[in-house]
Amino acid sequence: MTTARPPMGGGLSSRDAPPLDLPFRFFLTALAVVALLVVLAPWEARLAQGSFADPRLVAFVHLNTLGVIGAVILGASFQLLPVVLQAPLASVRYGRLAWCCYVPGIIAFLLGFSQGWIPVLGLGGTLLALAIGLYGGIVIRTLASSAQRDIVFWHVAVAVAGLLTGAALGVLLAMSGPGGLLGGFTFRVLAAHVALMLGGWVTPMLMGVAYRLVGMFTLSEDQIHVPTAWAGLGLSAGGAWAFAATLLFALGHVPAVGAATAALLGLCLFAGQLARLYRRRRRRTFDIHIPFMIVATGSAVLALVLIVDGLVGSRPASASVWRAAVWLLIAGWAETAIQGFLYKIGAFLTWLHRYAPLAGRRRVPKLEDLYGRQTALVGWAAWTFGVAAETAAILGGAPLLAYLAGGALSLGLGALLVNAARMSTHWRAAQSAPTARRPAQGLAPVGTVPVVTTGRVERPSSATHS
Predict the structure, then answer these.
(1) Above 70 in pLDDT, residue 457?
(2) Residue 12's closest CA among 80, 72, 78, 92?
(3) Distance (Å, rounded) from C-alpha 178 to C-alpha 53?
(4) E strand or H helix at 405, and its extent?
(5) Is 145 helix (H, G, I), strand (E, B) or coil?
(6) From residue 237, how far is each of 71, 135, 194, 268 by CA, in Å?
């Protein structure tokens, strides 16, 4: 049996990790957008029943993709890359500059698009393009400087290629403006943009992050089956790129079905990998990210099933099946997985920088003590119901069900905010912790994550906790 041997340091931090303010400014941006979505979701979820040409729907979609998904992925990348690659981030300063462009870019882009203000839309698109270009340059330089090129490395590399190409198509769409300078090519470019951003960027990035985080927090990193992981990456990302090409260049019905089927098979292989990691995990206790990842992966598979079904059935572009598939990929796949990951990343970084200096000298909490598990489970249940109900509302054309789904989605996101606020109280609670020295590499909440000492994953010893 061939398995991956993760040569990484302990947890989500190492001596190469960037200053904490870099990832956290992106995470806080995402949480601010989540707070806005808590208010908007009950009323705006019904927009998914409309047309892709509706500016309000496009603005709402980008509020989710740029404000939540993009912000979290950028912040997580800056934190995880140096740890995974064992190489420092190419430039922390340009990372901060990327954030300074990203936030006003989102605001200007959404205002310009929703209100039809072309100069503001152009300004927002320019700032976002600059932010994504800075991010891409930092990641590419960091990847090039690393001698460690495992399966996670290639997931990130493929994802960045998808991001830069998909963003370029997005800039082209923004430049065409509401006047439709692209003419008959507008919908083809839009479809290719969506395929690359969701299938070529978000999906391989989430798969790579999942291999890292799921393996780490379940003590099963050495159970990743490398050939299967390579096949999953090749099929899912290759299928997304091929699907985007068939849409952009109108290559025909059969190639589109083949590309979508390949992407579906890739996600099925990924789902099998997750099942393998959970089945062989050494840490047998319940972990909050697991139900989120189960729903997320199931949503992604269902979305690809709907796409294949729509292609085989030659459904028109206005058919509800396409909107349902995009909804499942955005909310069901990406945003559900991100919520599960945020619980682990946020709790770990809070523990590392507030309690690690006290470990061994006083009783310290476990990661699970930093947030409310019952609150998280209520949020997961509400969010899952909302995703399912909105999918049914889109497919069945039921406006009242869409309002019910929006309320449930708002409740789910509200639970995430409550737990984020609870984690923030631990930063104040541990102000007496020494800050003069940085925690040693490999230091992690014992009994919670793997302790890596000699390149192999060891089962942590027992510890006392408050």
Answers:
(1) no
(2) 80
(3) 10
(4) helix 399-429
(5) coil
(6) 21, 20, 13, 13
The C-alpha atoms of residue 390 and residue 402 are separated, in whole angstroms, by: 5
- Neighbouring residues of 435: CB distance < 8 A, sequence distance ≥ 6: 357
**What does the angle CA 166 – CA 167 – CA 172 come to, to the nearest 5 degrees?**
100
Query: The tokens of 64 are what?
Result: 């989710």
- Report residue 56 CA to chain centroid gap: 23
pLDDT of 155: 96
CA distance 126 to 270: 35
416 touches 342 (CB < 8 A): yes
- DSSP one-letter code for 8: -
How far apart CA 34 and CA 42 sit, in angstroms, is 13
Rounded to whole angstroms, the Cα distance separating 75 from 19 reads: 12
> Which pLDDT does position 8 carry in this prediction?
38
Query: What's the confidence (pLDDT) of residue 13?
Result: 57
**Distance between CA atoms of residues 316 and 310, nearest Å:** 8
| In 145-185, alpha helices (H) | 151-176
Give phi and psi for 456, each to the nearest 5: -120, 155
Q: What is the pTM of this model?
A: 0.87
For 238, the token pair is 């290759």
The C-alpha atoms of residue 37 and residue 64 are separated, in whole angstroms, by 8
Question: Taking the CB of residue 116, how many other CB atoms lie within 10 A of it?
Answer: 12
Provide the b/e sequence for 354-387 (b: ≥16 CB within 10 Å).
bbbbebeeeebbbbbbbbbeeebebbbbbbbbbb
Q: 462 φ, ψ to 5°?
A: -70, 160
Identity of the residue numbered 393: A
How many residues does the structure list for the chain? 466
Contact 368/445 with Cβ under 8 angstroms?
no
CA 118 to chain CA centroid, nearest Å: 30
Percent of the chain scoring above 70 in pLDDT: 88
Q: Which three-class secondary structure state does DSSP give residue 457?
A: strand
Closest CA to 140 of 156, 128, 162, 127: 156
Q: Which residue has the tokens 């995990």?
A: 281
List Cβ neighbours of 292 (8 Å cut-off, separation of 6 or more): 336, 337, 339, 340, 341, 343, 380
State the angle between helix axes of 373-396 and 336-354 in degrees (0 to 180), rounded to the nearest 10.
160
Q: Which residues contact 415 (CB under 8 A, 6 or more apart)?
A: 375, 376, 378, 379, 380, 382, 383
Rounded to whole angstroms, how far apart are CA atoms 305 and 384?
19
C-alpha 68/C-alpha 31 separation (Å) is 7
CA distance readout (Å), 238 to 130, 258, 266: 27, 11, 9
User: d(Cα 364, Cα 357) in Å, to the nearest integer?
Assistant: 10
